[in-house]
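Q: I have two molecules that I believe assemble together. Could you output C-alpha cells for the complex as a whole instead of separate predictions?
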Amino acid sequence: MKEYLHKIRPNLFVLPALLMALLFFVVPFVLLFYVSFTEGSSYFFNPIFTLDNYVKAFTDHLPDFRNTLVLASLGATIDVILGYPYAYLLNRKIRKLGDFFRTILLIPLLGELYIAYGLWWLFLPTGPLAPILESFGISSFALLYTPFSAAVALAIYTFPFSVLQMGINLSQIDPVYEEAASCLGAGRFSRFLHVLLPLSLPGLMSGWFMAFGWNIGAYAIPALMGGVIIGQRVLSIQIRAIGLLMMNYGLAAALASTLVVIALVFMFASLKVSRGTLI
Amino acid sequence: MRRPDFSTIVSYAYVIIVSFIIIVPFVITFIRSFMMPDGTLSISNYFGIAGVFWPKVWLSLQLAIYTVVLDLVITIPAAYALTRFDFKGKSAVLLTLMGVWYVPGISYALSLILSFYLIYKACLSILGFIVTYVTGFLPIMLLSTIVAFRRLDVSYEEAARCLGASGLKTFLHVTLPLIGPGISSGVILTFILSFNEFITAFLLAGPTGILTAPVKVFDDISHAGMYGFVAAEAAILQLISLTVIFLYLKIVGTRYLKGIVFF
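A: Yes, here they are, computed for all two components at once.
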C-alpha cells in the first residue's frame, strides 16, 4: 500500500491544478469547438449540425480576419523594430539603471485598457498632441481612428513580451563572437549583419510571433482607437457582438475557434524557434 | 573620472526615449485625471467619481487576492511534483496547465460562458470570475513556482530527510521557507494581472451582471470618455497596481523576476 502511495504521489500533487485546467480550460474549449459546428444558438435546444459557420467565417467575415491580422502584424513589427535595439542595449551596454529600465517593462502588463484610454486622449484632435502636429503641417485628425494609432497602441501593449523573447535570446549569445569578428577586421555594420543578426534571428522571430499572438486577442485597443471601419471589424469585437449581443453562438464559436488556432500556431512557432521561456 | 563615450550616451538616450514612449499612455492618464475642461489643474475630478465605483474596486481587489491564494495552493504541489519527480505524461500535464496562457482571452471567455450556460450553472455568479481567474492565471504562477523549485538545491531537503524529518515536515520547515521569496514573483504578477483583467471580465459581465473595476472603467470610457472623472477612475486603478509593484521591488527587489519577466 505504501509503495503504491509513493508511486502515485506526484500524480496526487498535480491533481488539483490539473483538475482546474481540465474543468475550466479543456472542457470549455471542447465545447467551443463542438458548438462551432451547430447552427445559431440551436445548441441550447436541439443541435442542428452544419459547416455553415465556417463558410460564413471565411467569406462574410474575411475582412475581420484581414483587419485583425494586419493590425496585429503592424504592432508586432513596430515591437521588433523598437524592441530589438532595446533588448540588445539592455544586455550589452546599459550597466547602471538596467533594472530600472527592466522595471519599466512591467508597466504595460497593467493591460491594454489603460494604454488605449491614454493614447486615445493623446491622439484626439483636441488633445495635447494636436498643436504639435499642426505646427508640422499635419492635420490633427490624421492620428486617431487609423490603423496606425491602433498599431502603436498594440505595440506598447506587447512590447514587454517581444523584448523578453529577444532579450533571453541575446543574453545567450556570447560576445566573444562579435569580438572575434572585430579582431578579424569586421566593421560595426558587417559585424551586426554577418554575426549578430544571424545568431539572434531566432529571438527576433520568436519576439515577433509572441507579440503577434497577443495582439490578435486585443479588444480595448481596436475598440477605442481603431475607428469604425477597421476597429469595429476585428475578430475580438465581432466575436463578442455576434455571440453575446446577437446570440449567434455557433458563428461566434467558429470565429473564436479559428482565432485560437491562429494564436496557437504563432505562439508555438515562437516557442519552437526560441526554445525559451513561456511568456 | 572617465567621461562616457559617444556610443554610451546614444545607448542611454535610445533606451530612455523608448521607455518614455511605453509609459506615455499611463502618464497621460494621470495628467488627464487632474485636468479640468478649461485646462486648469485641480483634484475635483476625483470627487466626481460616482459612489458605485468603490465597491467595484474592492471587488477587484478581493478577486485578485482570491486568485493569488487559490493559485498558490494548487500550483505549489503541482510545481513540486513537476520539478522533483518523473512521471508518465509529464509534458502533457505541463501543456494542459500552461495552454490557457497562449489562448486569446476573448476565445477563452466565450468558451467559458458557453460551459457556464450548459454545464457549470453555479458559475453564473462571482464563482465564475474566481474559476476563470484561477485557471487563467495558473500558468504565470506555475512558471514562477517551477523556476523557484529549480533554483532550490535538493540537498537541503535531503539533509532534512536524513536527520529524520518526515516528508511533510521537510516541506513545511525547509522547502517552503526557502522557495518563499522565489514564488513572490508569481504572487505579484498574478495579483497585477488579475486585478487589471479586462477582456474575460468584460464578457462575463453580460451573463453574470457583475462588473469589476476595469470593466466599469471601460464602460465609462465608452459612455463618458471625455469627462475627467473617468481618467480619475483609471488613474486610481493604475495607482493601486503601481503601488503594489513599487512595494514589491522595494522589499524583494528584481532578482526573482529574472527568467520570468526579466531577462
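A: One point stands out. The longest helix of chain B spans residues 53-84.
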